């Protein structure tokens, strides 16, 4: 199963649209996971039209229309992998411990908010992933998203993709 992870798209505030390479990757994915801060419900509509499957949550910049359609926390099983998605996890210091306590029955936790890519493993084995932002790189050298493959309950080939500056 091919999975794409994104977050903090902020369309149309930070960009008019998602970068074209990201749309191509979305088309190729079996599942698209979005960890919040969509900003406009129109992007959710477009993503649901194009993607084979969307798992998403709302973020702190998402208003009532998005909150009416998306949960604060999503939990799904994908090819035997227990995945959870949330927008905010708090400060980097202590993140692994806090998230392991909050998500004890989870293999992978995807989060956003910081716009900073993150890949770590908490004591007990919980993997934490933040794909960064494809539209608002903030203090990062480039905008980013993640892809991976899930096979037999394992997350494989996690790849951070840089996006060209638009």
General description of the model:
This protein is an alpha/beta fold. It has a single domain (2-163), classed as Purple Acid Phosphatase, chain A, domain 2 (4-Layer Sandwich). 20% of the residues lie in helices and 33% in strands. The chain is built from four helices and ten strands. The chain has helices at 20-28, 41-50, 64-69, 95-102, and strands spanning 2-6, 31-34, 54-56, 73-78, 81-86, 108-110, 118-121, 127-130, 143-151, 154-163. The chain has a five-stranded mixed beta sheet with strand order 3-2-1-9-10, with helices on one face. Strands 4-5-6-8-7 form a five-stranded mixed beta sheet, with no helix packed on it. It is globular. It starts with a strand and ends with a strand. The model has no long low-confidence stretch (mean pLDDT 96). Its EC number is 3.1.4.-. One of its GO terms (molecular function) is metal ion binding.
List the helices and strands and how they pair.
Layout: E1 2-6, H1 20-28, E2 31-34, H2 41-50, E3 54-56, H3 64-69, E4 73-78, E5 81-86, H4 95-102, E6 108-110, E7 118-121, E8 127-130, E9 143-151, E10 154-163
Parallel strand pairs: 1-2, 2-3, 5-6, 6-8
Antiparallel strand pairs: 1-9, 4-5, 7-8, 9-10
Family: Belongs to the metallophosphoesterase superfamily. YfcE family.
Protein name: Phosphoesterase
Keywords: Metal-binding
């Amino acid at each position: 199963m091919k999975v794409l992870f994104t977050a903090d798209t902020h369309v149309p505030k930070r960009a008019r649209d998602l970068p074209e390479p990201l749309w191509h990757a979305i088309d190729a994915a079996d599942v698209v996971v979005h960890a919040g801060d969509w900003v406009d419900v129109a992007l959710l509509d477009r993503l649901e039209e194009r993607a084979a499957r969307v798992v998403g949550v709302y973020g702190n910049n998402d208003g009532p229309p998005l909150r009416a359609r998306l949960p604060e926390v999503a939990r799904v099983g994908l090819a035997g992998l227990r995945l959870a998605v949330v927008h905010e996890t708090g400060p980097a210091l202590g993140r692994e411990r806090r998230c392991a306590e909050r998500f004890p029955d989870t293999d992978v936790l995807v989060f956003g908010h910081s716009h900073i890519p993150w890949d770590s493993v908490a004591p007990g084995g919980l993997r934490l992933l933040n794909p960064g932002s494809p539209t608002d790189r903030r203090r990062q050298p480039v905008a980013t998203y993640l892809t991976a493959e899930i096979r037999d309950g394992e997350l494989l080939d996690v790849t951070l993709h840089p996006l060209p500056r638009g």
